Amino acid sequence: MKNVTDSFVSLGHWPSAGSFGFNTDILATNLINLGVVLGVLIFFGKGVLSDLLDNRKKRILNTIRNSEELREGAIEQLEKARARLRKVEIEADEFRVNGYSEIEREKLNLIDSTYKTLEQLENYKNETINFEQQKASNQVRQRVFQQALQGALGTLNSCLNNELHLRTISANIGILAAMKQITD
């Protein structure tokens, strides 16, 4: 029993066992801190890093698959284009064999249709010009009428008394309503 109590008593003699203190050995504390930080990073960062790498691997594989599909599509399009080229070359040879008579016929038909289109466009242009001239002359007539009416009203306003003025306005409103019905 004495040995057990001696061991407790000897613990009481250790001055650093129950207190905190500063370790002034910079190299030892930096290595310990670095080890702790690296341990935490490895422990917690391993899952995140592996997820990032897996995602990156999947994206790379998807990109490779897409590239392969695009390459196969491009090869198909190239083959189709080559087939069309061969077909066009055969047709060109047929045109050379048959001569240029069909081309000349098409050329004459195109020239005729172009002349007809030009005539139609000329007719449309003339109709549009006539329409715009009529529209402009109608606008001028309306403006002259409005100015004449305003001048007459100005003259009447300066020359008439109130009773005569009210009768003249009523008569003019009747005339304008009748003219509006005629123009509509």
UniProtKB/TrEMBL annotation:
<keyword id="KW-0813">Transport</keyword>
<keyword id="KW-0138">CF(0)</keyword>
<keyword id="KW-0175">Coiled coil</keyword>
<keyword id="KW-0406">Ion transport</keyword>
<feature type="coiled-coil region">
    <location>
        <begin position="64"/>
        <end position="98"/>
    </location>
</feature>
<dbReference type="GO" id="GO:0046933">
    <property type="term" value="F:proton-transporting ATP synthase activity, rotational mechanism"/>
</dbReference>
<dbReference type="InterPro" id="IPR002146">
    <property type="entry name" value="ATP_synth_b/b'su_bac/chlpt"/>
</dbReference>
<dbReference type="GO" id="GO:0009535">
    <property type="term" value="C:chloroplast thylakoid membrane"/>
</dbReference>
<comment type="function">
    <text>F(1)F(0) ATP synthase produces ATP from ADP in the presence of a proton or sodium gradient. F-type ATPases consist of two structural domains, F(1) containing the extramembraneous catalytic core and F(0) containing the membrane proton channel, linked together by a central stalk and a peripheral stalk. During catalysis, ATP synthesis in the catalytic domain of F(1) is coupled via a rotary mechanism of the central stalk subunits to proton translocation.</text>
</comment>
<comment type="similarity">
    <text>Belongs to the ATPase B chain family.</text>
</comment>
<dbReference type="Pfam" id="PF00430">
    <property type="entry name" value="ATP-synt_B"/>
</dbReference>
<keyword id="KW-0812">Transmembrane</keyword>
<feature type="transmembrane region" description="Helical">
    <location>
        <begin position="26"/>
        <end position="49"/>
    </location>
</feature>
<keyword id="KW-0934">Plastid</keyword>
<keyword id="KW-0472">Membrane</keyword>
<dbReference type="GO" id="GO:0045259">
    <property type="term" value="C:proton-transporting ATP synthase complex"/>
</dbReference>
<keyword id="KW-0375">Hydrogen ion transport</keyword>
<keyword id="KW-0150">Chloroplast</keyword>
<comment type="subunit">
    <text>F-type ATPases have 2 components, F(1) - the catalytic core - and F(0) - the membrane proton channel. F(1) has five subunits: alpha(3), beta(3), gamma(1), delta(1), epsilon(1). F(0) has four main subunits: a(1), b(1), b'(1) and c(10-14). The alpha and beta chains form an alternating ring which encloses part of the gamma chain. F(1) is attached to F(0) by a central stalk formed by the gamma and epsilon chains, while a peripheral stalk is formed by the delta, b and b' chains.</text>
</comment>
<keyword id="KW-0793">Thylakoid</keyword>
<comment type="function">
    <text>Component of the F(0) channel, it forms part of the peripheral stalk, linking F(1) to F(0).</text>
</comment>
<keyword id="KW-1133">Transmembrane helix</keyword>
<protein>
    <recommendedName>
        <fullName>ATP synthase subunit b, chloroplastic</fullName>
    </recommendedName>
</protein>
<keyword id="KW-0066">ATP synthesis</keyword>
